Amino acid sequence: MTKFARVIDDVVLELWSDDGRGISVSAVFVPELAAQFMPVPDDVRPGWTRVNGAWTAPDATDPLAPDYGTLVTVLAFRQRFSLAERQAIEMGSLDDPNGTAEERALAAALRVYQTDLAAATFVDLNATETRASVQQLAAFGLLADGRVEEILDTPVRWEELPVDRQASA
After folding, report:
1. What is the pLDDT of residues 84-113, one digit of tens each?
2. H or E element that contains 72
3. Cβ neighbours of residue 111 under 8 Å, at least 6 residues apart?
4. Are 116 and 136 a contacting pair, CB within 8 Å?
5. Alpha carbon distances (Å) from 47 to 33, 57, 61, 65
6. pLDDT tens figures, 110-147
7. How far, in whole angstroms, is CA 1 from its chain's centroid?
8. pTM over 0.85
9. I need a surface site. Which of 48, 131, 154, 167 has the fewest CB within 10 A?
């Protein structure tokens, strides 16, 4: 499965993937927009830049970087997780009728998490429920050390803001 980024002036604006369905970028987007997409490594996120062919994450320590708060779109929140992490969450949510009660409870907890996320219109990275849910994913062994902080505490970029907040940012 190939991940594509819409890139303008060597800055990633958004990501797209066919999720392994074999759909080309040109089959989904009008030609003018499709021409802006290119294949990128799995770890590339919106806001990354390409310098001499290498992808670089934005410098989160820039003192002049604007503070956009803690609200992000659901998609932006999901994209803070790697593809492997999202796959592990999805696979972990599958119920095995032959599993132990503990395994089935973990799968049910993951399904509840996914359902709540799907019903949300935005995610507040600083909300108690959000932080507890991501910490629980780590406790379930679905996130590597340091990922909770990276997912929750990386400063919000303009591209991650809900549309109504982009207009006022």
Report:
1. 999 999 999 999 999 999 999 999 999 999
2. strand 71-72
3. 93, 95
4. no
5. 18, 7, 14, 12
6. 999 999 999 999 999 999 999 999 999 999 999 998 89
7. 16
8. no
9. 167
